[in-house]
């Protein structure tokens, strides 16, 4: 060894406890979400099941069930778990195919199906976790060492991007066929975000930005393929440009009812349990699912909604901090992917409920009633806390 060469310092993996602030965030959100789901679902639970606690009991059951795989994902070293991520991805792809064939058709969509008499599952929710885990493992091993930009871009495109896009496209296409554009968008933003941060050279940065810009027209094309999406987009642009909801008794009905609830809540809100929109004004079960944030704004007002937004900003900061302190690239990508996924999902939902983006049906983690969404969210937090157990000690 020459004098100029320095021996490489080994990085030891030191175990710590979980990130306490993230753990507290999960506990508080799970409890608050259960309370608000109960509050927003009382009318429907009494009307259909003659049991005001029906949806609350289901949500608590899912929280308990979801805690089991979350604990497993927390205690097993994530590096060992990621070795099986390709098998997990193949399983999810198989489930996405099965739901298209055997799934229950609800409002023209095939998103759920039952297995052996168990409660219905939504494979697209599990696809989010499977994609994040697999790309964390796969992207961590990808490198591009060419020096010339033109040559480097060519190798980057053929060796890195095409493989990445092929894997993503298979999952995205299957979910689009359900159809579920909202989930496809969340997976797309998450996957491309992970891809972008997986490299740090000029070639990767230039290529990633170029591909991201080209992806925008594809999203717009997908958005106008279904008539109901066009109606939602028209409603959104009419609200943004003219300040009023088009066709309030038709395609704009849901947005109209959401705005009525938010407007009546004002700054302080009507108070817990005082929402009127939950009494059948919000279509179907959306008062405690897709539009629960509107009910929260109606009852707790602007201050309550602001606290929720700030809580997710806090999670975004802590999630990225965990990613930066991860002991390896796999951990960095895993923490980054989970943070991007859950934060984008939360903000898309909240933005749709205040008219900043078109309504998409994207769930708000922990606050939206739903089995698959709750279980997958808990599993994601289990993995994130797993990464937080380790830190660099050079």
Structural summary, described in words:
It comes from candidate division WS6 bacterium GW2011_GWB1_33_6. Keywords: Cell cycle, Cell division, Cell shape, Glycosyltransferase, Membrane, Peptidoglycan synthesis, Transferase, Transmembrane, Transmembrane helix. InterPro entries: FtsW/RodA. One of its GO terms (biological process) is peptidoglycan biosynthetic process. Its EC number is 2.4.99.28. The chain is mainly alpha-helical. The protein folds into 2 domains: 16-75 and 229-394, no CATH class; 84-225. It contains 13 helices and 4 strands. The strands form 2 sheets. The protein has a two-stranded antiparallel sheet. The protein has a two-stranded antiparallel ribbon with strand order 2-3. Helix 2 (54-75) packs parallel to helix 13 and helix 6 packs antiparallel against helix 7 (181-197). The longest helix has 34 residues, at 292-325. The protein is globular, with a radius of gyration of 22 Å. Mean pLDDT is 86; it is low at 1-12.
């Amino acid at each position: 060894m020459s004098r100029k060469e320095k021996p490489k310092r080994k990085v030891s993996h030191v175990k710590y406890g979980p990130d306490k602030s993230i753990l507290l965030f999960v506990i508080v959100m799970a409890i608050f979400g259960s309370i608000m789901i109960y509050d927003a679902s009382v009318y429907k639970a009494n009307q259909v099941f003659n049991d005001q606690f029906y949806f609350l009991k289901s949500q608590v059951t899912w929280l308990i069930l979801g805690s089991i795989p979350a604990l497993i994902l927390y205690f097993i070293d994530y590096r060992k778990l990621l070795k099986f991520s390709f098998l997990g991805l193949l399983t999810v792809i198989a489930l996405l195919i099965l739901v298209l064939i055997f799934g229950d058709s609800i409002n023209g969509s095939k998103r759920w199906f039952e297995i052996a008499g168990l409660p219905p599952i939504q494979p697209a929710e599990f696809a989010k976790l499977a994609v994040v885990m697999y790309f964390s493992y796969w992207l961590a091993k990808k490198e591009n060492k060419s020096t010339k930009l033109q040559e480097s871009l060519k190798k980057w495109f053929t060796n890195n991007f095409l493989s990445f896009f092929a894997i993503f496209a298979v999952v995205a296409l299957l979910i689009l066929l359900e159809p579920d554009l909202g989930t496809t968008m969340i997976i797309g933003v998450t996957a491309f975000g992970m891809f972008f941060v997986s490299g740090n050279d000029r070639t990767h940065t230039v290529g990633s930005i170029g591909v991201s810009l080209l992806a925008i027209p594809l999203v717009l094309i997908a958005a106008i393929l279904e008539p109901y999406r066009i109606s939602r987009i028209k409603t959104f642009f009419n609200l943004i440009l003219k300040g009023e909801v088009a066709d309030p008794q038709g395609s704009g009905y849901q947005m109209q009812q959401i705005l009525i609830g938010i407007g009546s809540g004002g700054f302080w809100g009507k108070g817990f349990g005082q929402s009127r929109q939950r009494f059948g004004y919000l279509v179907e079960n959306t008062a405690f699912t897709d539009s629960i944030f509107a009910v929260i704004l109606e009852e707790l007002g602007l201050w309550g909604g602001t606290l929720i937004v700030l809580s997710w900003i806090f999670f975004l900061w802590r999630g990225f901090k965990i990613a930066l302190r991860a002991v390896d690239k796999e951990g960095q990508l895993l923490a980054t992917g989970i943070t991007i996924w859950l934060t984008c999902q939360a903000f898309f939902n909240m933005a749709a409920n205040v008219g900043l983006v078109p309504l998409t049906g994207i769930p708000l983690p922990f606050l939206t009633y739903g089995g698959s969404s709750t279980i997958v969210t808990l599993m994601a937090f289990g993995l994130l806390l797993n990464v937080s157990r380790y830190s660099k000690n050079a």
